[in-house]
């Protein structure tokens, strides 16, 4: 019964041309990409084709490339002493990404996974913002992947063109080298793209929640009942919990594999016998850049959404303070129950806000803006209870209970960046 329900989800999401959203939010290139990276399991043969492509490009080609075409007897410029680390790192992240994508598609379907099924309940501002970011996802993937792929292509073509007589071949030398070169480039592009794609999907879903949080911040600019505010916040917290639960294994696995890969690169490049020139270690540096880039996308998205969610507490406290101060202007010292909107507006300047993010200037939850006071609508007790609730129930992305906030993620990214810069110094900078 469960398998039939999952299959029906696939057919609804993928069977009719991969329609992502019946409300008009769709992207042909994005749909084609989702199908290309094996999200189309609407039929048995498509599922088999997806898994076959994964095993060939994600596992088979890297194994053949390492054990058959390593060329250990070639000259110093054509030897690849770091190929094992490169192939293992890329394949490990590709396996994790593919398994996560397959599990999400099989369990949720595309529409539900991307929260498109509930997007009709959101405001026009949220829908339009999500539509723009959804259409921009393909461009981001190309921006992140194609430059590295271009460098990898140049290196592979040079490697086969200048070392054709030393590299093992079968049958016709030129045909054999051309086929193997194309397969290796396709494998590199497939493994890198599928990893970066999951990171971009995570960024896309986090961006939707950021839009919802910015829309939620508007409740403090108008007359709203506490029950309505609480209900909206609970819905946002639930969405963040769902995202955390779906992506926690991928984020943790990515952090472990990328860190392990960086440490292995560090250990093998600091050996006294290591010859760290750009011909031998250039591919290693390119692999590290791609892996750290994907991890940076995830960390930045987690940091932004956790910071945005926690800033709601500060905004609510500001709103509560302004309303409380305004209530003392009443002659009887009591907050009346009649719904009369105060015309007073209180400027609040808080210098403790971090201003290292460019988009903070347009943040609707920025508590340095003027806060209109509706003291006559909500009693002090209700406002105080709401602020206490927000302070003790901070929303954000968690991984197995650990909140991914700026403090921890800055430390993690600092370590990853230090390892990457060390590797680039040992390979590219020292050679030039």
From TrEMBL:
Keyword Transmembrane helix part of the UniProt annotation: yes
UniProt-listed InterPro entries: DUF3537
Keywords, ordered alphabetically: Membrane, Transmembrane, Transmembrane helix
Pfam families named in the record: DUF3537 (PF12056)
Keyword Cytoplasm among record annotations: no
TM spans (from-to): 49-69, 84-105, 140-161, 167-190, 250-270, 282-299
Full protein name: Extracellular ligand-gated ion channel protein
Species the sequence originates in: Tripterygium wilfordii (Thunder God vine)
């Amino acid at each position: 019964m469960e398998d039939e329900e999952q299959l029906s989800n696939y057919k609804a999401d993928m069977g009719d041309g991969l329609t992502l959203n019946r409300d008009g939010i769709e992207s042909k290139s994005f749909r084609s990409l989702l199908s290309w990276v094996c999200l189309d399991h609407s039929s048995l043969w498509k599922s088999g084709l997806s898994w076959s492509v994964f095993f060939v490009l994600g596992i088979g080609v890297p194994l053949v490339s390492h054990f058959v075409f390593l060329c250990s007897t070639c000259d110093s410029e054509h030897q690849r002493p770091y190929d094992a680390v490169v192939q293992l790192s890329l394949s490990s992240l590709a396996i994790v990404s593919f398994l996560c994508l397959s599990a999400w598609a099989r369990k949720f379907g595309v529409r539900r996974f991307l929260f498109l099924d509930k997007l009709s309940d959101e405001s026009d501002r949220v829908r339009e913002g999500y539509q723009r970011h959804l259409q921009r996802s393909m461009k981001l993937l190309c921006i992140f992947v194609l430059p590295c792929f271009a460098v990898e292509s140049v290196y592979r073509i040079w490697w086969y063109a200048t070392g054709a007589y030393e590299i093992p071949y079968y049958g016709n030398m030129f045909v054999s080298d051309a086929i193997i070169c194309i397969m290796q480039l396709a494998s590199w592009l497939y493994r890198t793209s599928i990893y970066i794609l999951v990171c971009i999907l995570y960024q896309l879903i986090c961006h939707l929640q950021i839009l919802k949080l910015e829309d939620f911040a508007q409740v403090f600019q108008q007359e709203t009942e506490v029950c309505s505010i609480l209900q909206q916040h609970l819905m946002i917290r639930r969405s963040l919990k769902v995202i955390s639960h779906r992506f926690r294994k991928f984020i943790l696995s990515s952090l472990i594999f990328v860190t392990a890969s960086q440490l292995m690169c560090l250990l093998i490049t600091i050996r006294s016998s290591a010859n760290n020139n750009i011909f031998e270690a250039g591919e290693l540096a390119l692999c590290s850049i791609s892996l750290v880039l994907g991890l940076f996308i995830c960390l930045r998205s987690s940091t932004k959404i956790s910071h945005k969610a926690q800033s709601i507490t500060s905004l609510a406290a500001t709103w509560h303070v302004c309303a409380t101060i305004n209530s003392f202007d009443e002659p009887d010292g009591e907050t009346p129950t009649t719904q009369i909107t105060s015309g007073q507006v209180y400027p609040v300047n808080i210098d403790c806000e971090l201003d290292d993010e460019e988009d903070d200037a347009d943040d609707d939850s920025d508590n340095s803006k003027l806060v209109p006071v509706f003291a006559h609508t909500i009693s002090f007790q209700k406002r105080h209870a709401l602020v206490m609730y927000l302070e003790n129930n901070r929303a954000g992305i968690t991984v197995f209970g650990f909140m991914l906030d700026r403090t921890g993620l800055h430390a993690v990214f600092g370590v990853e960046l230090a390892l990457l810069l060390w590797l680039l110094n040992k390979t590219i900078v020292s050679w030039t």
